[in-house]
Amino acid sequence: MTLSQLSVGYKNGQVKNVLMENLSLEIPKGKFIALLGANGVGKSTLIRTIANLQKPLFGNILLKGKNIKEYDSKEFARQISLVLTDRIQGGNLNVQELVEMGRYPYTNWTGKLRSQDHEKVEEAIHLCAIGYLKDANIFEISDGQLQKAMIARALAQDGELMLLDEPTVHLDANNRFAVMELLRKLVNETQKSVLMSTHQVEMALKMSDELWLANCGENIKNGTPQELIKQKEIERSFPYLQKLKIDH
After folding, report:
1. Whether the Cβ atoms of residue 39 and residue 198 lie closer than 8 Å to each other
2. What pTM did the predictor assign?
3. What number of CA atoms fall less than 13 Å from residue 159's CA on the CB side?
């Protein structure tokens, strides 16, 4: 995927509220990219724009050389999966049924799963290590378990790019680490790409291949964690990290 001179934000009548602008970035195959920045800088807006849930204010987003506006919804969903922080409204769904929803872009009007669909669902459940939860109601499991199930649903969708907006925001420390470790493992084992917005700076530094660093009023700085540390961009954006090192 390529972002070309992209500006994102919101329109209020004729007034544009620009949160990020002039973004020219690439998401290569098989990379784990962490999008870091303070609240209100536009991370969720960028994720939602890339996911085609809201229109860019300016510029283009190309997926395999084709503007995402030219994809129909099912075709696009076969390429990109999305995990948001919104609590799912799923009635009496169990975990197995939730993951099966990821196969919707491949089914016909009857919604019936084929053998290939069942294989993808089982593979996703196995990779996310949630087989023991298959029959559990989604309202009876922990937030950490639900997040893994949501990632499994996105994985069952079998697109080449997974977008996640703050997937660890409501989780305790153990589950935050477990989800980040799971995403790292999925990139390594499936060669899918992951773009994830997060506040978990230290874990992002350790586990991601590339960082997109967003600061208010500036273009995104991108590079490997090592490059951005060397350039002192991490220290500038997150001065508390330096204080934590001094205090400890």
Report:
1. no
2. 0.90
3. 28
